[in-house]
Write a structure and sequence with these properties.
This protein is α+β, with helices and mostly antiparallel strands. The structure holds adenosine-5'-diphosphate and magnesium ion.
C-alpha cells in the first residue's frame, strides 16, 4: 500500500466544492455515469483500432444502492485504469480541473446556477460522499488498484484482487445526503439525465413472464381445467434507450418514428406535434437533434416541456437560452452537441462564436423546413397557420435572415379565411385600395366580432379585409411598412371606409357651410371633448349617421408599447377617438332642424350612444342610461 498527497494547492478543497455546487448536488451521478460511459466507448474504440485485444461483450453500467450500509456503487465494464493511471488521471489531472474551477469562480460564490454546469467530473462525488473508493482493473494485463479518499487531500492506493475488467466507484454517502439512498430518488435522476445514455444502465431487476415457460393445463376428475400460473423470471432493469431517434439518419426514420419519439420524450403530453425538423450537421460544428412545432395549447404542463439540451446523449439542461434563438424557445424536442461549451457561464456562451453559429444554423433549418412545407402542401400549411403564426411573426421581427425567408411563406388570412402571402395580397389589392395620397391601403381587423360593422361596410364596397389578430402583429406591420414603399396597414375602424380609400364618386355635401358651422357646436356640446374629435363628412346617405373611429397611428403606438416595442411611456397615452358625422344622412338634417333644444340633445345623445355601442364602448352607467332612454323613446 502506498500513501500520497493529492497534488493541490488549495488546502481544503472538499468543503469548497460542497459549498460551490450546493444547488446542484445531484449532478454527481450524471458525472460518474458519464465517466463510466466514456470508459466503455474508449474501450470499444481501442478494440476497433486493434490496440486492445479483449472481448468487448455487451457492457453495461450498473447502479446499486446499498441503503443499509449507506453506499452507492457505480460499476462499469469499460477500459479500467492501472494504478499508474489512477495516479495520473484521478490524483493529478482531475484535481487540476477542480483547481481551475475554483480559480475561475472564487469571486462568484453566489452564482451557483453558473457553476452547476461546470463539469467537475469525478470530484463531484464528494458533494454527496464523505469517502470515495475506486476499485479498477485495466484491460491491460496489470493488477487491479484500490484507491480510497475520505475527502481530505490525502488518499491511499493499494492492490486489489478484482479480476474482471472495469471500474467500480463506491460512494460512502454523507449523513446530509441520505436522500440519495432512496431508490426513487436515483430512479428520478437516471430518468432525468440518462434516459438516452449510450451504454445500457442497469438499475435493479424486474419481473417478466419467462418466455421459455409453457404453462400446463390439467383436468380434475370432474373435467374442470386449470392452467398453472405463468412462471416469472428476474431480468436486468435497463432504464435507458441507447438509440434515441435523433441519433439516427433522417432517411431511416418514418413519420411514425418521429411521433413515437415525441411521446417518449414527453410522456405526459397527449397532444401530437404539428411537424418536426431533424437537425443533423457535422461541420463546422457537431449538432444533432429533433425539434417539434407544438400545437398551441392552454395546458400549462405543456409549457414545462421545453427543448432539452444533451451532450453525447447525456441531459445537460432544458434552458437553451442563447443556443436556440429566442423565437424558437416555444418549440419542443432535443438538441445534442458535444461542441457547446457547458462548463462556462451563460454570458460567455452568448458571446461564443460556435454557439452563435449553432443558433444561426437552427434558424436557417427551421426557415427551410417551413418553406418546404408551404411548397409541398399549402392547404395543410394554412390549416396549421394559427398554431404557428406567433412563432413565425416573432421570428420575422427578431431575425433579419428569418424575415427574408419567411416573407415567402408567412400568411395573411382574410376575414373570410382565404390565405394570401404578402406578395399575393399586394398584387390582388394594389389597384383597388389606394388612399388620397396614392398609398396602398391594407385593411385589416383585429377581431371579427369587435369590428363587425366596419368589416361589413368595407366588404360591401368590395374591399378585402385581413384578419390579423396575433399579439405582436402591430410590430410586424410597422416593419413591413418600412421595408416596402407606400404601404399602409389600416384597421377598418380607423376612419370611415370612404375616407380611408379613395373613390371616384365622392358624395356631394347636402349641407351648406353655414349649416355645418351651426351643426358642429350642437354636437360638441353633447360629447366629451377631451376624448372625441367631431369630424363632419359628406358620405353616402345610407352610411351610418354617427361613426366612432380610432385613428390608426395612436392606436398602434399604444398596442406596440403594450407588447414591448421599446416605446416607453406610450402606455399612458389617453384614449382618443373621432366621431365621424355623416352630414348627408337624413337623421343629421333632423338634428339640425329640430325645434326644441331638449329634443335635439336627446337625438344626438342617442345617436352617439349607438355609435359607441357598435365600437363596444358603452358600459356601466352610460349603458344603463342608454337603455332607459331607449325605452322612453319607444313607449
Ligand atoms: P473528465 O471526465 O472530464 O476527463 P473527470 O474528473 O470526470 O474528468 O475524470 C478524470 C479522468 O479519470 C478521466 O478522464 C478518466 O481518464 C479517468 N476516469 C474517471 N472515471 C473513470 C472510469 N470509470 N473508468 C476509467 N477511467 C476513469
Ligand atoms: Mg468526467
Amino acid at each position: 500500500m502506498s500513501k500520497g498527497n493529492i497534488n493541490v494547492s488549495v488546502e481544503n478543497i472538499f468543503p469548497l466544492i460542497k459549498k460551490f455546487l450546493y444547488s446542484d448536488h445531484e449532478i454527481f451521478l450524471r458525472e460518474l455515469i458519464s465517466n463510466a460511459t466514456d470508459a466503455t466507448t474508449k474501450l470499444k474504440h481501442l478494440i476497433a483500432i486493434g490496440e486492445a485485444k479483449v472481448e468487448y461483450g455487451s457492457p453495461q453500467i450498473e447502479i446499486k444502492v446499498d441503503k443499509d450500509n449507506q453506499k452507492i456503487h457505480i460499476t462499469d465494464q469499460g477500459l479500467g485504469m492501472t494504478a499508474d493511471e489512477v495516479e495520473k488521471y484521478i490524483n493529478q489531472i482531475a484535481f487540476s480541473g477542480a483547481e481551475e474551477f475554483l480559480e475561475k469562480y472564487k469571486d462568484e460564490k453566489n452564482d451557483t446556477g453558473v457553476i452547476g454546469h461546470f463539469g467537475l467530473g469525478f470530484y463531484s462525488a464528494f458533494m454527496v460522499a464523505e469517502k470515495v473508493e475506486i476499485i479498477t482493473k485495466s484491460y491491460k494485463d496489470e493488477k487491479a488498484a484500490h484507491w480510497t479518499c475520505d475527502g481530505s487531500p490525502e488518499y491511499t492506493i493499494e492492490a486489489h484482487d478484482k479480476t474482471d475488467r472495469g471500474t467500480e466507484i463506491i460512494l460512502h454517502i454523507a449523513d446530509d445526503s441520505k436522500e440519495f439512498l432512496e431508490d426513487s430518488k436515483i430512479k428520478d435522476l437516471l430518468t432525468k439525465y440518462n434516459r438516452f445514455n449510450q451504454i445500457p444502465i442497469k438499475f435493479g431487476t424486474k419481473k417478466i413472464n419467462d418466455p421459455d415457460f409453457i404453462p400446463k393445463t390439467t383436468k380434475d376428475k370432474d373435467g374442470k381445467e386449470t392452467t398453472e400460473p405463468h412462471k416469472q423470471i428476474d431480468v436486468d432493469n435497463i432504464i435507458n434507450n441507447t438509440n434515441p431517434a435523433w441519433t439516427k439518419k433522417p432517411a431511416d426514420l418514418e413519420d411514425e418514428d418521429y411521433k413515437n419519439f415525441y411521446r417518449e420524450l414527453y410522456p405526459m403530453q397527449f397532444e401530437e406535434s404539428l411537424f418536426h425538423i431533424h437537425l443533423n450537421v457535422d461541420y463546422p460544428f457537431n449538432l444533432t437533434g429533433i425539434l417539434y412545432f407544438p400545437k398551441l395549447t392552454q395546458n400549462l404542463d405543456m409549457q414545462k416541456d421545453r427543448i432539452q439540451l444533451y451532450q453525447n446523449q447525456v441531459f445537460v439542461t432544458d434552458n437553451v437560452e442563447g443556443i436556440v434563438p429566442d423565437f424558437l424557445q416555444m418549440l419542443k424536442g432535443v438538441i445534442d452537441s458535444p461542441d457547446i461549451p457547458l462548463n462556462v457561464s451563460r454570458s460567455y456562451l452568448q458571446a461564443d462564436g460556435a454557439v452563435k453559429k449553432i443558433s444561426g444554423y437552427i434558424t436557417k433549418k427551421v426557415a427551410d423546413k417551413l418553406a418546404s412545407l408551404f411548397k409541398k402542401d399549402r392547404e395543410d400549411f394554412e390549416k396549421k397557420w394559427n398554431d404557428i403564426k406567433v412563432i413565425i411573426e416573432y421570428g420575422m421581427l427578431s431575425e433579419e435572415k428569418f424575415f427574408d425567408k419567411a416573407k415567402k411563406f408567412a400568411l395573411y388570412p382574410t376575414v373570410d379565411n382565404t390565405f394570401f402571402t404578402f406578395e399575393e395580397f399586394i398584387k390582388k389589392t394594389k389597384d383597388t385600395q389606394k388612399d388620397k395620397d396614392g398609398n396602398h391601403i391594407i385593411l385589416y381587423a383585429a377581431s371579427k366580432d369587435a369590428q363587425h360593422s366596419y368589416i361589413q361596410e368595407a366588404k360591401a364596397k368590395g374591399y378585402e379585409v385581413l384578419l390579423l389578430d396575433s399579439p405582436i402583429v402591430s410590430h410586424l406591420m410597422q416593419k413591413l411598412e418600412t421595408s416596402e414603399e407606400k404601404i399602409r396597414f389600416t384597421r377598418v375602424d380607423a376612419d370611415h371606409i370612404d375616407n380611408l380609400i379613395k373613390k371616384d364618386d365622392t358624395a356631394i355635401s347636402k349641407l351648406s357651410d353655414e349649416e355645418k358651422e351651426k351643426l358642429q357646436p350642437m354636437i360638441e356640446a353633447n360629447i366629451p371633448k377631451e376624448t372625441y374629435t367631431v369630424q363632419l363628412e359628406a358620405m353616402d346617405s345610407n352610411a351610418s349617421p354617427f361613426l366612432i373611429t380610432v385613428p390608426e397611428f395612436m392606436r398602434r403606438m399604444k398596442e406596440m408599447s403594450a407588447t414591448g416595442g421599446g416605446m416607453m411611456g406610450m402606455g399612458s397615452l389617453p384614449e382618443m377617438y373621432n366621431l365621424v358625422v355623416n352630414i348627408n344622412h337624413p337623421l343629421v338634417s333632423d338634428i339640425l332642424n329640430t325645434k326644441t333644444e331638449k329634443k335635439r340633445n336627446r337625438l344626438i345623445k342617442q345617436s352617439f350612444d349607438l355609435a359607441k355601442l357598435s365600437q363596444n364602448l358603452l358600459h356601466g352607467e352610460e349603458l344603463t342610461n342608454f337603455i332607459k332612454r331607449s325605452y322612453d323613446l319607444i313607449k
